[in-house]
Amino acid sequence: MLDLNGKNALVTGIANNRSIAWGIAQQLHKAGANLGITYLPDEKGKMEKKVGELVKPLNPSFCLPCNVQDDKQVKSTFKVIGDRWSRVDILIHCLAFAQKQDLSGDFSKTPRSGFNIALEVSTYSLIQLADAAGSLMSKGGSIVTLSYLGSIRAVPNYNIMGVAKAALEASVRYLAAEMGTKNIRVNAVSAGPIRTLASSAVGGILDMIHHVEEVAPLQRTVNQLEVGNATAFLCSDLASGITGQVIYVDAGYQIMGM
């Protein structure tokens, strides 16, 4: 019943085969979506090669650089996307970053520079890309971003990323309210802790995972493909009445008091 055939899905944030974005891309492909990929470029071109080889089995329409801190590159990338595709139906936003030193110690010591970069990359980029992709969603569409429980609870060693995720979830609601008139739905998936390149910067990530396995109703954590399944659902017509929501995919951990 979950059918994304004929849908053009733009996926951001794939870094390697542990990325949640990679799990999402696989499930969107499995459901029949036509994929486009963007990656964070580097001077030596390593990410272009690495991501390109990883996604090759999914036969994407393109694999383009997109550094969200570079407005000119974002504009040029979406110009290419508009030329390649007649429209965009799905945007997957899996972008987040904070300086490692800002993910430990006293939160009150967070420097202005650390605050700014975390909010710029992790939160503003959703607004930025929603605007760019939304202009290409001529038949409506679905935008899904990734959040985490640290947005509503104080999680050790999450610090500024908790603030960024809280702002991200607020942005989801404001974007949903605005873009609903164009039949564009905006939602977030709040995933349980998963070992990824990004999560490795969070001190004690393995302890967090083991704690979830002990406390969550399902007595385990989740994996990238489970997050991908929920995301594919939100992108499909089966979720046509859902917007502005944060959907927890965390084996039930979020409901527990202790």
TrEMBL record:
This is Enoyl-[acyl-carrier-protein] reductase [NADH]. GO terms for biological process: fatty acid biosynthetic process. The active site is at 148 (proton acceptor), 158 (proton acceptor). Pathway: Lipid metabolism; fatty acid biosynthesis. Its EC number is 1.3.1.9. The keyword NAD applies. Substrate binds at residue 98. SUPFAM superfamilies: NAD(P)-binding Rossmann-fold domains (SSF51735). Keywords: Fatty acid biosynthesis, Fatty acid metabolism, Lipid biosynthesis, Lipid metabolism, NAD, Oxidoreductase. InterPro entries: Enoyl-ACP_Rdtase_NADH, NAD(P)-bd_dom_sf, SDR_fam. The keyword Secreted does not apply. NAD(+) binds at residues 13, 19-20, 95, 165, 194-198. Belongs to the short-chain dehydrogenases/reductases (SDR) family. FabI subfamily. It comes from the Bacteria. It catalyses: a 2,3-saturated acyl-[ACP] + NAD(+) = a (2E)-enoyl-[ACP] + NADH + H(+). The lineage of its organism: Bacteria, Bacillati, Cyanobacteriota, Cyanophyceae, Nostocales. CDD domains: ENR_SDR. GO terms for molecular function: enoyl-[acyl-carrier-protein] reductase (NADH) activity.
